[in-house]
Amino acid sequence: MRSVNLFPEQFSQNKQLPIRIITPDFGHLSREIAAESGFTRRLQYYFSLFVLDGRCQHIVDLETMEIGKHELLFALPHQVQQYPATSHGSDYYKLGFDEECFSRLPRRFPFLLNPLNRQKIRFSPAAAIRLKAVFEILLGLLSTADTSPVLILAHLNSLLTEINTAYFAVDGRPADDRMEKFIGFKVFVENNLTDHPTVRNIAKELAVSTDSLYQIVKHFSGLSPKEFITNRLILEARRRLYYNEWTSVKELAFDLGFNDPDYFSRLFKKVTGKTIAGFSQDLS
Q1: 195 and 258 in contact (C-beta within 8 Å)?
Q2: How many other β-carbons are positioned within 10 Å of the β-carbon of residue 158?
Q3: Which residue, of 48, 72, 74, 263, has the fewest CB within 10 Å?
Q4: pLDDT at 195 over 70
Q5: CB-based burial of residue 171 (10 Å sphere; 0-12 exposed, 13-18 middle, 19+ buried)?
Q6: What pLDDT score does 2 carry?
Q7: 177-283 — its CATH code?
Q8: Per-residue pLDDT, 128
Q9: Spatial distance between the Cα atoms of 269 and 261, rounded to a whole number of angstroms
Q10: Helices 225-242 & 210-221, crossing angle to 10 degrees?
């Protein structure tokens, strides 16, 4: 897998941290930078949009999502993001930060691996008020470029803790050992995707039986481990096709670790229902 690129330098609102916050009245990019970035991009950083009032649509990995009052959408590095033609609602916060910033936080946040395959979170009125309060503090801190990173990171940690809690509260229970194993499975797949890891090797890495791994992955994703890996590979193919990151089917297949381009083409059609040429034509 490719490494995550650094946060775009012109985006950062702090001299020492790669982070930016945007509200209806603050932080918007200049027309020149916005035009240069484009309305569709492959994300280089973690992104979230929290809508306090109103509604909007956002497209992530070619899937349209509706975000309403007290809902938060998050997107991850490498995902294809399309900015909506409409506004983000009448009141909102957008936040972006990259892996460098994330690595300086005191704890990890499992929701950023999206183990439940849900990128939209709804908050109760009380939680939404708390979330708004932290966003407002971050807004104040990022209004000055030389604010101490220690202060920013402390409140970013609080914000992500609130989001992480709400993400897992959907199931009405905290993450358990099976969740930890599923997260470990997803991390291993991401780190070794183009090597096409076998289910047996992943189970050995996670110190579980292949049967246990099957049950865990099936429980959280609705797919078998093999189906999960296949779908992730085809998603990566769709992303690269979207950005024309290939010159031929053969090159794309080899880049994704397939030794047989014909098999890759058949697998792509089986998963998406379209040939590679048909998929590319729909994008043009």
Answers
A1: no
A2: 16
A3: 263
A4: yes
A5: exposed
A6: 35
A7: 1.10.10.60
A8: 96
A9: 12
A10: 50
Sorted by sequence, the CB contacts under 8 Å of residue 230 that are 6+ apart come out as 267, 271
What is the distance between the alpha carbons of residues 102 and 17, in angstroms, rounded to a whole number?
10
The per-residue pLDDT of the chain, averaged, comes to 87
Fold topology of 9-169:
Jelly Rolls (2.60.120)
Place of tokens 């009405």: 172
Domain with CATH 1.10.10.60 in the chain: 177-283
Which residues fall within 8 angstroms of residue 2, CB to CB, at 6 or more apart? Answer: 78
- Identify whether the C-beta of residue 144 lies closer than 8 Å to the C-beta of residue 197: no
Residue with tokens 């930078």: 33
Residue extent(s) of CATH 2.60.120.280 domains in the chain: 9-169
CA 164 to chain centre: 14
pLDDT tens, 208-266? 999 999 999 998 888 999 999 999 999 999 888 877 767 799 999 999 999 999 999 99
pLDDT band for position 85 (cuts 50, 70, 90): low
The model carries a pTM of: 0.77
